[in-house]
Recover the amino acids of this structure.
């Protein structure tokens, strides 16, 4: 473990009290906080300027979400390790974090000692999820992502359009293929993703719920 004073850190949260509390805890424990941001755009700018070792980001922020900040920063090839610090426990957020290959995901209810444990893990190139998450939920999300990645490029294209709530006829027109071909792809996707096909909208509903993950394909 490197000296805490050498762990440069950017923190971002649009709640002033949470941002101040996080800064005070990190500073009191000898971490080097090089920047604080109250919105996503400011967070991205600080990350690109300082290229910190660690960035602790909220998800729901003005201008850019924490996920959008991470995606854009990664496109710029920064070396920063990204840790989400959020109230969100839902699977759709876990899925998006895993799809973006985020290094750590903590909940705002977690203690500072767990934040430190997370930092230690990500600095050792390990992925850390809050102990508050149910292990089975993390496993289910991981399996769903594996299934999505096994789709063909054509099936992924169809799935993206389905997640945008386009009908089969609209997809066929957009891709210059027959409706029958679209329906065949939809059937294959349902089978590969093991979606319970209980209604005609089963795939559309599943894709809409997972749209933020699907758009990363």
């Amino acid at each position: 473990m490197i000296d805490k004073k050498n762990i440069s850190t950017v923190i971002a949260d649009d709640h002033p009290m949470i941002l101040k509390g996080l800064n005070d805890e990190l500073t009191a424990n000898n971490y080097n906080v090089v920047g604080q941001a109250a919105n996503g755009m400011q967070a991205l700018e600080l990350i690109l300027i300082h290229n910190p070792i660690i960035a602790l980001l909220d998800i729901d922020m003005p201008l850019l979400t924490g996920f959008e900040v991470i995606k854009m920063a990664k496109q710029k090839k920064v070396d920063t390790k990204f840790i989400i610090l959020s109230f969100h426990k839902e699977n759709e957020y876990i899925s998006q974090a895993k799809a973006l290959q985020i290094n750590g995901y903590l909940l705002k209810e977690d203690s500072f000692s767990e934040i430190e444990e997370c930092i230690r893990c990500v600095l050792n190139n390990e992925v850390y999820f809050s102990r508050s998450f149910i292990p089975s939920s993390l496993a289910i999300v991981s399996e769903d992502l594996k299934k999505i990645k096994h789709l063909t490029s054509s099936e992924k294209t169809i799935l993206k359009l389905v997640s945008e709530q386009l009908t089969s006829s609209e997809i066929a027109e957009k891709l210059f293929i027959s409706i029958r071909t679209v329906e065949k792809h939809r059937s294959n996707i349902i089978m590969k993703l093991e979606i319970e096909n209980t209604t005609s909208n089963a795939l559309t509903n599943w894709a809409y719920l997972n749209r933020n993950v699907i758009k990363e394909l």
Notes: The chain has eleven helices and six strands. Strands lie at 8-12, 32-37, 54-57, 81-86, 104-107, 128-129.
